[in-house]
Amino acid sequence: PSAQVAYVAQHTRKHLEEHLTLSPMQYLKRRYGGSNAADPSGVDAEFLARPDIALTPDEEAERVSGKASINAIVGRRKRAGQVEYELKKNGREETVWEPLAYLRAHTNSYAMKLVLRFDEMQRAAESGMAVRPATTLEVLQHFKLFGISRRLANTELAGLSDGQKCRVVLAACFWPKPHVVILDEPTNFLDADSAWALATSLRTFKGACLCVSHDKLFLDRVCDEEWKVPGDGTVTVVPWEALK
């Protein structure tokens, strides 16, 4: 349950288009630094902003003031073979434990959103990300691993090249120290040296990497096996050496 999974989309604009007036330093701090108790440090703000996670204005109003509505999830446990969540409800001082099935069937449309948010916060806490400080020094040291200098780290994202933006997105991807990384065409905007450096880094990465790419040289450097997924529910795994 504490496994960290990171994803980089094919186009960096998916990650950066709403943050182009920020510097890479500001972007990473805003994404992982946490702004309040509800969104603590270590939780990916990009995850919390997803439509299936973020509460709509109506849902937020119901959460805050709805009679007997679920206000917050404050705990989780496994009991008698099923997962239960500790709920704080409006109008009640004491909390109540309810099974996951109850929340899935609950009339509050946002109940499962609260479950997913709580699970993500627990994952960050259990993985140690909740205590990783997003300080300037820590971020600069992290950026250095991706060829991002202090000058670039403090340059507005809108002024960076596509390759530099890609490096920023990759750096953000690896900030939470993921166990699994999913990369969609990661070399699209990288020059040859940057692509080589990324491949070298992935070879030493201790977690798992799932990569979609048409760059055979890159795949030769990174992959141990190929997964063939024809769409019929089957997956065929082929050792990469057998493809050469």
From TrEMBL:
UniProt cross-references to InterPro entries, sorted A to Z: ABC_transporter-like_ATP-bd (IPR003439), ABCF (IPR050611), eEF3_chromodomain-like_sf (IPR047038), P-loop_NTPase (IPR027417)
Domain ABC transporter, chain residue ranges per copy: 70-188
Keywords linked to the UniProt accession: Cytoplasm, Repeat
Alphabetized Gene3D superfamilies for the sequence: 2.40.50.990, P-loop containing nucleotide triphosphate hydrolases
UniProt-listed SUPFAM superfamilies: P-loop containing nucleoside triphosphate hydrolases (SSF52540)
Keyword Repeat: yes
Entry superkingdom: Eukaryota
Repeat as UniProt keyword: yes
Recorded GO MF terms: ATP binding; ATP hydrolysis activity
Protein name as catalogued: ABC transporter domain-containing protein
Biological source species: Pycnococcus provasolii
Taxonomic placement: Eukaryota, Viridiplantae, Chlorophyta, Pseudoscourfieldiophyceae, Pseudoscourfieldiales
